[in-house]
From TrEMBL:
It comes from the Bacteria. It comes from Streptomyces iranensis. One of its GO terms (molecular function) is transcription cis-regulatory region binding. This is TetR family transcriptional regulator. Gene3D superfamilies: Homeodomain-like, Tetracycline Repressor, domain 2. InterPro entries: DNA-bd_HTH_TetR-type_CS, Homeodomain-like_sf, HTH-type_TetR-like_transc_reg, HTH_TetR, Repressor_TetR_C, Tet_transcr_reg_TetR, Tet_transcr_reg_TetR-rel_C_sf. The keyword Repressor applies.
């Protein structure tokens, strides 16, 4: 196998899916690639840089989604964009943990275009910024909870298992309704 940056990241993501974020190590990755651990430092200065590249690669499906088209309903777009972000985080084991705390450096142009779409659709700039930030953080939090859920509801406490999909959709609807109210639309 030819080892380049993309190969290392791809193998690291496969390792993530197999063992989880806590067990991903440069030692383990080097073993998987059949190389000595220092060879990885040719491509990544440290584990943090590797994790950042992994997070960016894991977000590729969301980053490849179509940008909003002029005249598209911003509410529908906002909802679908947030759902797409959630689906992408769920594609990888510990996807939300991998993504949490990263900076979207490679996606800044796309984010600016999404913001411009919302503003052109009549959403005040500050509300658009806060809505995108809130939706992102809400989604990461929902996926963190879902990926940490071991399925162990506490029957003794009378709590039913959590339906993560329904909880996400309810929160998304509340957020959208609040944004519509702030913008002056009818929820």
């Amino acid at each position: 196998m030819k080892m380049n940056r993309e190969t290392v990241v791809g193998e690291a993501l496969d390792l993530l899916d197999e063992v989880g974020l806590d067990a991903v190590s440069t030692r383990r990755l080097a073993q998987r690639l059949g190389v000595e651990q220092p060879s990885l430092y040719y491509h990544f200065r440290n584990k943090k840089e590797l994790l950042s590249a992994m997070a960016e690669a894991a977000m590729a499906p969301h980053a490849a989604a179509a940008l909003p088209a002029p005249g598209e309903d911003w509410r529908e777009w906002f909802t679908q964009n947030t759902r797409g972000f959630r689906r992408t985080l769920l594609m990888r084991r510990d996807g939300a943990r991998l993504h949490a705390g990263t900076s979207p450096v490679a996606d800044l142009d796309r984010i600016a275009r999404k913001m411009a779409f919302l503003v052109a659709s009549g959403v005040p700039e500050r509300e658009a910024q806060m809505a995108m930030l809130a939706a992102g953080r809400f989604t990461v939090g929902c996926v963190l909870e879902q990926q940490a859920d071991t399925g162990g509801a506490d029957p003794a406490a009378g709590l039913p298992p959590i339906d993560h999909e329904s909880a996400f959709e309810a929160g998304l609807a509340l957020m959208l309704n609040g944004l519509m109210h702030r913008v002056g639309g009818t929820p």
